[in-house]
Design goal:
The chain is of the alpha+beta class. Helix content is 47%, strand content 15%. The chain contains seven helices and five strands; from the N terminus they run H-H-E-H-E-H-E-E-E-H-H-H. A hairpin with a 6-residue loop joins strand 3 and strand 4.
């Protein structure tokens, strides 16, 4: 049943503890080597939409005067074998990203560097997922489906945010959610 799928997809305390451990390790690495830089959960991970056994999304803010591309090259080199394995740097994107797996837990990690839109992406997803528990559950189920079909970004698929937007677009096209940007949209989720 759908409820058992959601129960299986929802991260438990152990998963959350391991994810926090990865964040703490990366934070220590940043503090040692990059004064003024900070790292935090972002995207689906910050909203609880990253399924159990799924990857985590992190966002790095860099100090003034540093370029995202140069920073991402150095940081990815530092992390390779020292916290992450199978590190891949996508430096030619508008927001450079580092992909890898945690060397102890094998949890996939996606780190965006100096992503100016990270907070807006989270705000949009939070607005819609907080509007009704069904939207949150649907987005979690979609992310779980992506995980189990190996369609994640690390496998050449779309980013977690892109999958969420596709899922929300489907809900919008079937009139299950209204446009959150319309002033008179009333409730965001339609009953049904």
């Amino acid at each position: 049943s759908f409820s058992s799928i959601l129960e299986d997809a929802t991260p438990n305390k152990h998963d959350l503890k391991r994810r926090s451990g990865i964040l703490n390790h990366l934070q220590k690495s940043l503090e040692r080597n990059h004064k003024g830089a900070s790292i935090s959960f972002s995207g689906n991970t910050s909203l609880g939409l990253s399924p159990r056994r799924g990857g985590i999304e992190l966002s790095v803010s860099i100090p003034e005067g540093k370029t995202a591309t140069a920073f991402s090259k150095k940081f990815s080199w530092e992390l390779n074998g020292r916290g992450l394995v199978d590190v891949i740097l996508h430096e030619n994107r508008s927001t450079p990203t580092i992909h890898g797996k945690n060397d102890r837990t094998s949890i996939p990690v996606r780190i965006s560097i100096a992503d100016a839109t990270a907070e807006n992406k989270v705000a949009l997803l939070r607005l819609l997922s907080d509007s009704d528990n069904r939207v949150f559950n649907y987005l979690l189920a979609v992310q779980n489906w992506v995980l189990h079909r190996d369609l994640a970004e690390q496998s050449g698929g779309l980013s977690p945010f892109a999958w969420s937007i596709l899922a929300l677009t489907y809900l919008r096209s079937t009139n299950l959610i209204s446009d959150p940007f319309l002033a008179d949209s009333g409730t965001i989720v339609e009953d049904g």
